[in-house]
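Lay summary

Proteins are chains of building blocks that fold into shapes. Our project writes down both the chain and a compact code for its shape. Here are two examples, one after the other.
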Amino acid sequence: MKRFIKSSTLAEMTALNIYEWLPLSFRDRFFYGDAYINWLSLLKDADEWDRKKLDLYQFEQTKKILVHAKENTPFYREFFSDIGFSPTKMQSLSDMKTLPYLKRETVRDRALSFLDEHISPASLVKANTSGSSGIPLTLYRSREAIAAYLAFRLHILSRIGYTPKAREVMFWPMIELGKRRNLPFARFGNKLAFSIRHLTGDWLLKFYKMTQKFDAEYIFAYPSVLSIISSYIKRNSLPSIKKVKAVVTFGESLFEWQKEQIEEVFGRTFSFYSMGERAVVGGECEYTSAIHMHPAYGFVEFVDSIQGYKEIVATGLTNDIMPLVRYKTGDVVTEYSQHCSQCGRSHTIVSKVVGRTQDFLIDKNREIIPMLMTWVKTFPHVLQFQFYQEEPGRAYLQILKDKGYKDSDTSYIKLKLDEMLGLMKQGITIDIVFVDEIQLMSSGKVQMVNQKLDIRDYLMA
């Protein structure tokens, strides 16, 4: 505990520490390029734009993305030709309504055809995601697209006073340094990262003490992770950690009971919303807990789902090497508006995004295994999957196979599950079963975890 980490990968740790202490002006331009600096400048100005100027910007950027998509990507060249759509003839955003929606399955099955054919996939950053839907995707991002996302993220977080130099605690799915995998924690510069794979036993108390000693200004974690920690602190009558300026939640829906529980221990929560597809991004404002979808990042529409829900449909405006047009995100809302009366921004406002569900399992000791979503990336030859649990200590991984699935894939998946669970694999048995279909939620979404146990029964156990 006297030292946060002792790593054999000295060069990597040294590089991370140097990076954290570099002057921001140099660091931003050197690592993220001019695109990052330009985005930050535009976003500062855009906060003052009225709805008319924002609509004009969205139209110009949407048209630009669509023209680029037709000229440079095989999928959209064929698609627009088949339906007789010409992006150059667009007169307004309402013309978008003539385009069919883009489904996640289409992106999964034809990922490479969405890429700019003039750019080699090897030169791009490849990312795998399963999102909250259980449908695995392979996505590609350019350096410029990554810079854009980081600029928007920083701009949104600046509403709570956050800067890159802030002291922050982060909870990551896995911590790796060089050849060392599954580390419980790592410290570099003003960042302290904990592994959510070690949220058991004595490690919870160690994380608590380290957070207190580190004197963090901000904490970043999934709501389910923060619920576990908050419950542990309350259950053991430990002092609250209210010196932090804000706790930033992401990746899951933040339920009201969680918000109350977390704020009782840590103080203010701030929800940040994004997705692996990078088609939309948003966050709370300075005064309300409603999510403000940033209009410069993506063009957002809402379409009828079922039982009063509206599904978010997004056209990303920052990743032209793999454009997603009218993409059905699978996330749903019940209410939305086009203006925030508290902060004055003319953004699309949603009170709550539903669908980033509580992806947790319960082990045989009644302890919580949190948020599997980011651990499970892409299983081979799997069309869709879902975890199912109705008793502590045992769960089922339901798999919808594609035609190329082999017995060796099952062995690989079992190996990856053991690797993902780490120390927590001792407390749970996960059996693989093959199914003909995956059950939908009432909202029309597919949960990654069909959990029949109530997390609240275990948080305070």
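And here is the second example, written the same way.
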Amino acid sequence: MIILGWGKKAKQLAFIGIEKCENCKNWCRFDLYKMSRRITLYFVPVAKWGKTYYAVCSTCEAGFEISEPQAQELLKKSVHLPDASETERLWLNLMGVEQWAREAGRKEFGASGAEVRQVLRDQFDINQYAEQWRGRYTDDEIAYALPLFRKYLEDNDLPE
């Protein structure tokens, strides 16, 4: 009896940063995936073809196809990014601050999410936040996430 198989296989290659997803409009973690078609004989891959690369949103799981040169460039950049899980944890903490401010602003003043983000943007002090998070996160994680949080606050095209 011969056992032959075929299909697609996706492999996660790297954490490529926190970005805004064009599909769900959320700012979240993106990972680089390589997808290829393959044939297996007795569960051992014997041929691969049709290699494609995708940047995948961790929130809505939308995949955005990218070229091989773009994928190689993202891989080179990913080496210099801070630890993925800790950076994502810091990002979620920052999102928690923003969520708390939105809820408080809505309850206290009837403010919209955009109005609360405007107040946060006006009062956002990277140095103050850096001091607050120092000790819990590395300097690399803080230096990466806080400027992105500033960029997030300046984004006017967000889901409410």
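What can we say about the second shape? The first helix runs from residue 68 to 78.
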